[in-house]
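Hi all, long-time lurker, first post. I run a small reading group and we've been trying to get comfortable going from sequence to structure in the token notation. Rather than ask abstract questions, I figured I'd post a concrete chain and ask someone more experienced to write out its structure so we can walk through it together at our next meeting. Sequence below, copied exactly:
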Amino acid sequence: MKPILDVQNLTMRFGGLTALDNLDLDVNEGEIVALIGPNGAGKTTFFNCITGIYKPTGGDILVHGSRKESVRLNGLKPNQVTEKGLARTFQNIRLFPNMTVLENVMMGRHCRTRSGILGAVFRGQATVREEQKVVEDSYEILKKINLARYVDELAMNLPYGAQRRLEIARAMATEPFLLLLDEPAAGMNPQETADLDELIVWIRDTEKISILLIEHDMKLVMSLSDRIFVMDYGKKIAQGTPEEIRCNPVVIKAYLGEEMDA
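-- Answer (accepted) --
Happy to help. Here is the structure in token form:
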């Protein structure tokens, strides 16, 4: 079976700086895969290449989605990548702060409607019916991830952990088969992190969405991941199961041996 994401020899240069150097990575259906490495290793640059924010200098980004056809993502815009079944969150929360929780999720849902966001503004009869379905579907997502009680709250008024969950909910609303999470536990307290652990596993097991995440919380990474890829200075230096990575001397050296014992 082909991986749902297959990245081959991905290279990204900014002038004379090589941010990604012939990087290979794959994600199989039903997996939770972590991408780790010291600050500045190139992890977010990797996500930006996959999701169309950056156009890679070289290499291939292939997805094999629900229709089982192979699609090359190189050169696609972010909205086109979303249409192909990939969604992401960001290291710094990017909600619409002055919109309600429900409206934030609806913004994600509109990428799967015929009318889109503009159609929701210029409302015809068919659009009204479609918009009602968007409301219903968005509310169901909020119920699933325990945010329904905030449905009419402005996003900026939510507790920090709930804002993180809302960003995940909005990404889920696009109906992805692969969800990319960029440091989802950043800034969370231990209880919020434990709740996030349960949420990510639930998304994989119940919603059948595979996960690729960047994360610095090594306890969370070791708990969640089926496989781990390790980067340093734009290169992949190791890959394997959590136990293999924990004992890998190259990885221990990159992390100075401290965080790997978490």
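A couple of things your group might point at:
The radius of gyration is 19 Å.
The chain has two domains: 1-85+176-262, 94-175.
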